[in-house]
Amino acid sequence: MLALLLHGNLQYAEIPKAEIPKVVEKAYRPVISTLIKREVPFALNITGFTLEILPKDVINLIKEGIASGLVEITGTAYSHAILPLLDLDRVEAQVQRDRAVKEELLEVSPKLFFPPELAYDPLLPAILQDNGYKEVFVDGEALILSDHLNRAIKPVEPLYPHLIKAQRGEGNRYVNYLLGLRELKRSLKIVFPGKVTLEAVKEITGIPIWVNVNTVVMLGAGRFPLMNPGKSASWLGNLDDIVLYGTDIEFLGYRPLADRLITVDSFLEVFDAFGREIKPPSELPHSGKRLYLRTSSWAPDKSLDIWRLDEGNARLNLLSRDIRGEKAFLAENSDARGWEPLPERRLDAFRAVYESWRGRNERS
Known about the structure:
This is Hydrolase. Keywords: Carbohydrate metabolism, Hydrolase. By secondary structure, the chain is α/β, with parallel strands linked by helices. The relative contact order is 0.17. Helix content is about 45%, strand content about 15%. Strand 6 and strand 7 (about 205-210) form a beta hairpin. It folds into two domains: about 1-305, Alpha-Beta Barrel (7-stranded beta/alpha barrel), CATH 3.20.110.20; about 310-364, no CATH class. The protein is globular. A nine-stranded mixed β-sheet has the order 8-1-2-3-4-5-7-6-9.
């Protein structure tokens, strides 16, 4: 059994706001409609903020998929906030606001939760349980690498560093790509099937998302050198009861990966090459494993550094703690911090901080 999840966030750090209609036209509308037409079940993780700005016809398309049993809606943070960087009141506010939007616009109360950037800490399951969630998506690689809890003592090394270098254009790109493919294939040995029980403040069921599996699927769907849909299926052929793809919908039809644009048709070729039944992630079986997952994300080093170390990020994180109400959601948006955020995205958060501060001072 294989499962599929698509993640949608129109506050994407590297996508200009002026491009949002194009993203909807090139990715959201064709991908969702194609999957529904072909009766491919999938989980749709889409932020509450994104739902509020999607065109009505796309909302109706999603509701059609929900009604037919093909679309499984997940909860997430309303404005794609990095939850372990927030105080607990704000974590719950993000969780509750997102659920309220989905209940209003989609008429559904999700039971699965997808933390933005799979950023997790052991308190999160307790807040999720308190708010009606039964299962949470987690980074599979971080699960495996949680055997040692202190990153200052034992840093986490990326599992396929040469592929990351090739993606960034560092050094000899082709040599790094070839070495990276070998590292990527070797990393698949850590992948295990099914769900896990997470040992946390309140135990919860975890559904692993495997970044290395995602990468193999995208390389095959994009027909990168030495890769194609059949090759991806061959590499992953021994794996079962996993989420075969669990990342951005924007990579399908809109956002190229290393200058190669993946279409929904080439993407589905990978699934077709497997020839296995596709089910919603909630139907994956339990592995019987009980694991502790440390504070982490799906960044290559499994840390939160991308969203906190930069001076601008640190400033936003500090100032955002004093904001409440509507402005807080914009100030907390992770894509103001992002992997490589556009100035306009970062300014949205700074502007929300300023307007909240100025309005508070004027009222007093």
